Amino acid sequence: MSYEEHLDEVTTQITEIYTVEDDEAIRMVMAAQEDEYFSGHDDDPTICTLERAGVDARYVFKNYSRKALARKPGKAD
To answer: Please, which residues have CB within 8 angstroms of residue 70's CB and are 6 or more apart in sequence?
Structure first.
């Protein structure tokens, strides 16, 4: 899958696994993208797989959900 398709799949998995709204899942993925979490995916599209999307969805939710951001000083918006 392409880089863009991978980001879409990560977003979809976040909404399905964690039952969050689309706009919140998009916010999390965009924040991770801004922090360059996905830069390796753009450089090497072979890591853009369905399995990796699941791994990335869990990482993004764990680190970019509002609850996770509340624990990080200066990161909550």
So the answer is: 76
